[in-house]
């Protein structure tokens, strides 16, 4: 079972690609939602007054993949899809790549546009730091304080990550574990007396 994915460690440095007086600025950001993508696009629009096209593609998700490619006024499939093709060829998800174009007065034609947007997307992803992350499953474990040692021992033995915890008479710990270990972890806690586990 594959339980890792590749994404960006941080936003990539800006790149500039020139073709027949047109300037193509490339950007790549790690994202987890469309809200974040909107924020990045708004910031780039403020940053680049006078740019004609803000073309982009994104891919979100690990189990269920969701993507979109946007030509932003360029001829159909001449910008967004070439950008998306680069996201795929680098094997990335939870990422958005934006290419901002300043028109230089010379038309590039559809073939020229495809090549320019693809090259800009490729250049910015080559500059990016790509990291592998695990696909994690989250559980909430509920128990009485007296069972604390038992729970903590399992967390330690299995290298589980504690995401959040509430420690009172009755305790709750939110845990993260790699997808491939998730069933095993669920079973361990599920078989323990006086300890509840649920997926969150």
TrEMBL record:
It comes from the Bacteria. Pfam families: Impact_N (PF01205). InterPro entries: Impact, Impact_N, Impact_N_sf, Ribosomal_Su5_D2-typ_SF. Residues 20-125 form the Impact N-terminal domain. Belongs to the IMPACT family. PANTHER family: IMPACT FAMILY MEMBER YIGZ, IMPACT-RELATED. This is YigZ family protein. The lineage of its organism: Bacteria, Pseudomonadati, Bacteroidota, Flavobacteriia, Flavobacteriales.
